[in-house]
Q: What sequence folds into this?
């Protein structure tokens, strides 16, 4: 190849991206046809880890985040910082109705129940793109300044109902997955199906804080079971639960300055009991606390616990509150975003410049902000006007990904991984 000697690094990266595109789509379709639920991504993680080992990554760590997480570390040919990229691997308990020839027909166990499984959020695309990034970086490792850490994370969408303890990004942080080496920056993208035709490949990014934070709770109420005809011999956990559920609504209404913090508290699961004439021993509820003031989490949690425990004790029972997942605000570091903006702009299609938006949806990648500055952006995967089938939104059975948009995602992630070292080297000098 006579052009190689004079070709610039960024031109080479673009050429690698074009060349790997078809294989990346094949990986994506394979993951799509074989989706796996949170903390069960064994097949996916196995494919990812073998791929990184085959590429000669210096280190490949498996079974992270309490389950299937994989981290691959590639040392570049020149000294420099450590940059981390994240892809999530999990699918959702949704029955696919896209009619695609690689549609999922898989089922899996989800807290003791058999459920259909579908990549209805696009994490199949995230994983495939990051595998392609891995291959391009391995090919160009001599040109890389510093090291690249590729993070393949389990359970972004939360754990199964019977999962114990933390999971996902929060668990990886708690387990010390980023202690050595400690990344200097995190980059992450999410596909965005916004249902406007012609948005494939459009990059959108916000500066500062995203919409809201979310803390997930599980409340277990212990009473004393017995005969429904003799309630005075029992402590009814369902009645306690009903009172807790109602009383919790007073927290956003009465404990929060509505000028500074928008708070919602929703219970999505309330279960207990087996028969009409048996008062059960226990009842359980699960719900989400969402809030726009990222600092207010501990206070809101303490209010929930005081209300739940106080009501249960007043009735002669007991309540336990378990916070099993915390998703902070997605904070896009303004300084890092400003510095890396040219890398995003170079990846964007000529007719679709980078769009600045006010905010973004939640993603548990926000937990990585406690380690290093983060930039999270979306890449459009809206279907084109002449596509016959309409796609649903994320988490809907008809959700689809316009694969043409993934070319932008790939270029953006490769640029960020490579450029970060060069920019840092310039700053250091
Ligand atoms: Zn999702
Ligand atoms: Zn998602």
A:
């Amino acid at each position: 190849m006579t052009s190689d000697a004079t070709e610039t690094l960024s031109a080479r990266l673009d050429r690698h991206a074009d060349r790997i595109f078809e294989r990346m789509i094949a990986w994506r379709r394979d993951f799509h046809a074989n989706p796996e639920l949170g903390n069960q991504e064994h097949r996916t993680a196995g494919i990812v880890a073998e791929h990184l080992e085959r590429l000669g990554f210096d280190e490949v760590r498996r079974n992270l985040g309490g389950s299937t997480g994989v981290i691959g570390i590639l040392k570049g040919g020149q000294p420099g910082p450590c940059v981390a990229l994240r892809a999530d691997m999990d699918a959702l308990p949704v029955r696919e109705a896209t009619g695609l020839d690689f549609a999922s027909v898989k089922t899996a166990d989800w807290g003791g129940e058999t459920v259909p499984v579908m990549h209805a959020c696009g994490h199949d695309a995230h994983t495939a793109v990051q595998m392609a990034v891995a291959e391009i970086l391995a090919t160009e490792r001599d040109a890389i300044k510093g090291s690249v850490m590729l993070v393949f994370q389990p359970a972004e969408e939360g754990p199964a109902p019977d999962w114990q303890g933390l999971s996902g990004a929060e668990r990886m942080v708690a387990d010390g997955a980023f202690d050595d080496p400690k990344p200097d920056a995190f980059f992450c993208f999410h596909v965005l199906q916004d249902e406007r035709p012609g948005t494939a490949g459009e990059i959108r990014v916000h500066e500062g804080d995203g919409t809201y934070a979310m803390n997930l709770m599980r409340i277990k109420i212990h009473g004393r079971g017995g005969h429904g005809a003799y309630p005075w011999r029992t402590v009814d956990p369902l009645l306690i639960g009903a009172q807790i559920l109602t009383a919790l609504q007073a927290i956003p209404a009465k404990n929060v300055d509505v000028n500074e913090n928008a708070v919602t508290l929703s219970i999505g699961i309330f279960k207990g009991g087996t028969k009409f004439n048996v008062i059960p021993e226990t009842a359980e509820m699960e719900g989400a606390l969402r809030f726009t003031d990222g600092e207010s989490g501990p206070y809101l949690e303490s209010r929930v616990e005081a209300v739940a425990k106080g009501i249960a004790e007043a009735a002669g029972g007991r309540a336990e509150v378990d916070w099993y997942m915390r998703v902070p605000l997605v904070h896009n570091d303004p300084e890092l975003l400003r510095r890396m903006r040219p890398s995003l702009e170079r990846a964007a299609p000529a007719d679709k410049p980078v769009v600045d938006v006010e905010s973004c949806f939640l993603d548990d990648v926000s937990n990585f902000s406690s380690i290093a500055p983060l930039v999270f952006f979306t890449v459009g995967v809206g279907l084109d006007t002449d596509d016959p089938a309409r796609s649903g939104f994320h988490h809907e059975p008809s959700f689809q990904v316009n694969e043409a948009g993934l070319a932008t995602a790939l270029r953006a992630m490769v640029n960020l991984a490579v450029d970060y070292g060069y920019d840092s080297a310039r700053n250091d000098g």
